[in-house]
Each structure stands twice: as C-alpha cells, then as structure tokens.
Amino acid sequence: MCKDDSSKIETTKQSEQATKLDVDVVQKAERSTNSKVLITRQTEQSTDMIKDLLDYGHLPFLLPMIETVELSPIIDCNRYDIIIFTSTNACRYFSKYKEIVKADRYIAVGSKTAEACKSYLSVDIDFYPETFSMEFLKDRLINERLKSCTKILLAGAKERANRDDSKLLEIGIELNYLPIYETISVKYERYFIDNFLSSNKINTLTFCSPSSVKSFIKQIDNINYKDYKVVSIGKTTSDFLNSHNIENVYPEIYTTHEMIKLI
Fold first, then answer.
1. What's the chain's Rg over C-alpha atoms?
2. pLDDT recorded at residue 139
C-alpha cells in the first residue's frame, strides 16, 4: 500500500501502487469533505466514481474487493436473434467475438452497459432496462409477439450461468448462456480491511455488485454496519445486502453517479 502523504486516495491491494490524483484537488476535497467513502469495485472501473465523489466534496478510498478473469468459452452458433449483455465487463470480454457472432438485436442491462456496447462492440442497443430478470424478459418478448423459435444469447459472468430460464422455455424461447468472465475475490491479510476502515475513518461503504459484498463480508472481522451509511448501485445488490441484514439505500437509476447523490 502506498504511503505517500500527498495523496489520500488509496488503492490498497497490497501489491499495487496507490491511485494518484492532483494534490490540490485532493487537499481541497479533504478540507470540504462530507464523507469518507469506501469504493469496493475494480480499480479500472473506479475512475469516474472517484472524480464524482471529489466533485461532491467527499473523500474516496479505493479498496477493490473483486477482480475479473477472462474465460474462453466455445460458441456453437454464430447467429442469434438477440444478444443480451449483462455488464460492461461482458461487453469488454465479448469484443473478441464481435466479428464472428452477430445478432439482429442487442439488449444491454443498464445505461452504462449500453455505453460499453457502443464503445467495445460498435452496435446499436435496442433497449436497456435498468433491472433484469427472466420474468421481465419473458413479459417483454410476449408483448413483442416474437416467434417461439427465437434464439437468445446471454453474455455475462460465470456465476450467473445457473439462472433459471424455465420462464422462457414456457413460451418456446431458446436461451443460450455464455459465461465469458469469472468474478473472483481479492484477498487481503486478516484484519487488513478492519484496520483500513478504522485508520481512514471511513463512514460510508459503497457496493456495485453482490460479488463485492460477498468478498467484503467474508474478510471483515469486526464491524457494526449501523456505524456506516451503506449505498448500493441497484436492487440486486441491495437485496443481497438485505439478505445479510445490512441496511442500505440505492438510486432509481443504477449508476455510480446516481449512487453518490445518496451519500
């Protein structure tokens, strides 16, 4: 962990150098800070969140709880009626297939994923719901009166592969799941996270996925969540927190920018 006193923004995965921001910007934020906020998402996805927190007068501390590992699945078909992308990582890892796997329509889960589809895949998104479930997809497809032999490819994380697609089978839709990356926990030494929260006087915790919550809970030793404001990115992460009796809030629009407005 970097111990440069000129920067209070910490990237504390022990083997990495701390995130460096302009000294004047950080010192200005520190003088006017309302909250000291823990960011638990991946380093490469946290730049905008760090900037937004500073703009709102908060002081961010980056402690990645998860990282993604690319997988190399075999794709049996190169043409689908619809391809659904569940995250920005799904778009990024799917980019190597974009010239060989095509679809008539593309769906993204959330506005940020829609932006990633444009950036990584150069495809136009048909629509992007902020929440996603098989029930939602079934209702949408029924309303559109799609033919029963419609083939859908769902690209996302390996841990989502066991989702129940029986609701689609009920209306004759063929769903093919493509796990193109795996989310794994970033491991820290025991008590490292506890000490990090205490020494930096963190008062707000943010979570952008159930995986980051799971990793955090497994590695924290002594915490009273009532001492913190907990903000999640959306309903799925919020539900996971609630299942562990952790009170939290989440925005109507599932983006980190909207999360920060709740702090």
1. 20
2. 72
Cα separations (Å) of 241 from 7, 63, 105? 31, 18, 34
SS3 15: coil
Burial track 210-238 (b if 16+ CB lie within 10 A, e otherwise) = bbbbbbbeebeeebebeebbbbbbbebbb
pTM of the model: 0.76
All structural domains of the chain, each given as residue ranges with its CATH number in brackets, are 23-65+186-260 (3.40.50.10090), 69-183 (3.40.50.10090)
Beta-sheet strand order (sheet of 66-70): 66-70, 174-185, 151-157, 79-85, 102-108
The CA distance from 147 to 151, in Å, is 10
> How many angstroms from the chain centroid is the CA of residue 164?
21
Mean pLDDT of successive 10-residue segments in the chain (263 residues)? 40 40 48 81 92 95 95 86 89 92 89 90 84 66 67 84 61 82 94 96 95 96 95 92 96 90 94
